[in-house]
Amino acid sequence: MKGSQISATLILIAVFSFLYVPIAVLVLLSFNEAGLPTVWSGFSTRWYASLVHHAEILGAAWNTLVVAVAATAISTVLGTLLALGLETRARRSRGLEALVMAPMIIPDIVLAVSLLSFFSWADVTMGLHTIIASHVVFDLAFVSAVVRAQLKSFDFSIVEASRDLGAGAFTTFRRVVLPVILPGIVAGALLAFTLSVDEFIIAFFTAGAGRDSITLPMQIYSMIRFGVTPEINALATLVMAVSATALLISQRLNRGAIAP
Amino acid sequence: MLPALLWLAIFMIVPVGLVLAYSVFTRGVYGGIDYIFTWDNFVRAADPLYARIFLTSARVAGLATIFALLIGYPAAYAIGLAPKRHQATLLFFAVLPFWSNYLIRTYAWIVLLNREGLINAGLKALGYQGEPLSILYTEGAVIAGLVYNYLPFVILAIYASLSRLDPQLREASRDLGGGAATTFWRVTLPLTVPGVAAGAVFVFVLSIGNFVTPALLGGGRFQMVGNLVYDQFLTANDWPFGAALGLALITVMLVLLIVQAALTGRAAGEARRPA
């Protein structure tokens, strides 16, 4: 091996340790009988078992699922239409592109307080529905980006061929366009789902005051702030496992969805 | 396309516009908004008490950006040197943590840094006798958390920029007698400015408005602009002042995006310039 390759390998080992050791420690601790960060007292799955009896966590998990599924469904449909619209427009408008990508760049806290102000100004009672509407805003940006990436390699002349052969617009979409871009749509949907499951700040501001619209990240936040219980390691491990699985599938479906 | 744009208009443009408008109104006696025009919120934001929080935020975000670049650049460069067939996998695993829960990644640092945490336990195991180090609830802990959370994106942005670089340019530099260091400083680095700028803007913007990391790793007393916005909206009930602070954050973001676009444009110009 050349010197440069040896140093490159060392750098990668160091950086990947930095990225993964903190996560590995959490996973390891979630199986620690004692539930203490430093004392290892034997392997145990008791913290996972106690999650099942934790009514607040179960409720929050259910809310998270409802929000993520609804926000994913809406943003996948709207985001796909948006991507098709943007890719088939003859003239690109930079303003429109910036508008669609804006939710990725605007600081979360600004979007969060804006939505809170908006819902209270419009006199909308806040709850899961307002979290869903808000999550769609940033999910849209990601779904449309992934679907657009897929459309870049799409040969639009087959659409013309389909129309020439007498297929209507809807049939052409369903039988010609959709099968080709479906992997991109599913990849985008999985990404939206992951982002929605993990999103905290916007949900926190748009959930309203009631306890019944608390999502998992909100539950995790309050567990961290007010007395850490050992269950949090188990909960964190489960949440990370779900996110990582969704992302691995998303990556397989659409190479370049997460990292080009 | 229209339904999506309508959604963005209702749930993004109108809300952000509303908050921007709130910043020039007066706070009502019992909270809420009195629609009386005033510049007071901006005057108040410039008060030394709050200006100091802005400076702290800028310092913390700036340091986090510098460290993220110092770690991220070599990491991206090393991935670029790996065999082609492994690069996509390495990149995927470098970015994977970025897509997992932000709170959990921050919590992992509490586990590492607290007085009974892994770092102190490690020191003790190595024979350290003194008091456990108080690393958690410091500015350093906040910076470490921010670097950790945003590093994957920096690696991605710089790698994207490196992979667009024409390898012939580096060969040409070597052929013309440029050593490894000269080639890096005079060819590679200037041409990857767009990636560095994109990564830097991203880390800085997300760090300066962050309230979760300062709240969890900085302890309750460590305040940044994000925490101030949070307090004005959820505790003090002074929405116009919170809105003015939010406007300040958006301004910082826009200025940085313009700088980034300028840097990207210049780098593109240099690449096209005939030798």
From TrEMBL, chain A:
<dbReference type="InterPro" id="IPR035906">
    <property type="entry name" value="MetI-like_sf"/>
</dbReference>
<dbReference type="GO" id="GO:0055085">
    <property type="term" value="P:transmembrane transport"/>
</dbReference>
<dbReference type="InterPro" id="IPR000515">
    <property type="entry name" value="MetI-like"/>
</dbReference>
<keyword id="KW-0813">Transport</keyword>
<feature type="transmembrane region" description="Helical">
    <location>
        <begin position="98"/>
        <end position="122"/>
    </location>
</feature>
<dbReference type="Pfam" id="PF00528">
    <property type="entry name" value="BPD_transp_1"/>
</dbReference>
<feature type="transmembrane region" description="Helical">
    <location>
        <begin position="7"/>
        <end position="31"/>
    </location>
</feature>
<keyword id="KW-0812">Transmembrane</keyword>
<keyword id="KW-0472">Membrane</keyword>
<protein>
    <submittedName>
        <fullName>ABC transporter permease</fullName>
    </submittedName>
</protein>
<feature type="transmembrane region" description="Helical">
    <location>
        <begin position="232"/>
        <end position="250"/>
    </location>
</feature>
<feature type="transmembrane region" description="Helical">
    <location>
        <begin position="128"/>
        <end position="147"/>
    </location>
</feature>
<keyword id="KW-1003">Cell membrane</keyword>
<feature type="transmembrane region" description="Helical">
    <location>
        <begin position="60"/>
        <end position="86"/>
    </location>
</feature>
<feature type="transmembrane region" description="Helical">
    <location>
        <begin position="176"/>
        <end position="195"/>
    </location>
</feature>
<dbReference type="InterPro" id="IPR051789">
    <property type="entry name" value="Bact_Polyamine_Transport"/>
</dbReference>
<keyword id="KW-1133">Transmembrane helix</keyword>
<dbReference type="GO" id="GO:0005886">
    <property type="term" value="C:plasma membrane"/>
</dbReference>
<comment type="similarity">
    <text>Belongs to the binding-protein-dependent transport system permease family. CysTW subfamily.</text>
</comment>
<feature type="domain" description="ABC transmembrane type-1">
    <location>
        <begin position="61"/>
        <end position="250"/>
    </location>
</feature>
From TrEMBL, chain B:
<feature type="transmembrane region" description="Helical">
    <location>
        <begin position="239"/>
        <end position="263"/>
    </location>
</feature>
<feature type="transmembrane region" description="Helical">
    <location>
        <begin position="141"/>
        <end position="162"/>
    </location>
</feature>
<feature type="transmembrane region" description="Helical">
    <location>
        <begin position="183"/>
        <end position="208"/>
    </location>
</feature>
<feature type="transmembrane region" description="Helical">
    <location>
        <begin position="88"/>
        <end position="110"/>
    </location>
</feature>
<keyword id="KW-0812">Transmembrane</keyword>
<protein>
    <submittedName>
        <fullName>ABC transporter permease</fullName>
    </submittedName>
</protein>
<dbReference type="InterPro" id="IPR035906">
    <property type="entry name" value="MetI-like_sf"/>
</dbReference>
<feature type="transmembrane region" description="Helical">
    <location>
        <begin position="49"/>
        <end position="76"/>
    </location>
</feature>
<comment type="similarity">
    <text>Belongs to the binding-protein-dependent transport system permease family. CysTW subfamily.</text>
</comment>
<feature type="domain" description="ABC transmembrane type-1">
    <location>
        <begin position="54"/>
        <end position="260"/>
    </location>
</feature>
<keyword id="KW-0813">Transport</keyword>
<dbReference type="GO" id="GO:0055085">
    <property type="term" value="P:transmembrane transport"/>
</dbReference>
<dbReference type="GO" id="GO:0005886">
    <property type="term" value="C:plasma membrane"/>
</dbReference>
<keyword id="KW-1133">Transmembrane helix</keyword>
<keyword id="KW-0472">Membrane</keyword>
<dbReference type="Pfam" id="PF00528">
    <property type="entry name" value="BPD_transp_1"/>
</dbReference>
<dbReference type="InterPro" id="IPR000515">
    <property type="entry name" value="MetI-like"/>
</dbReference>
<keyword id="KW-1003">Cell membrane</keyword>
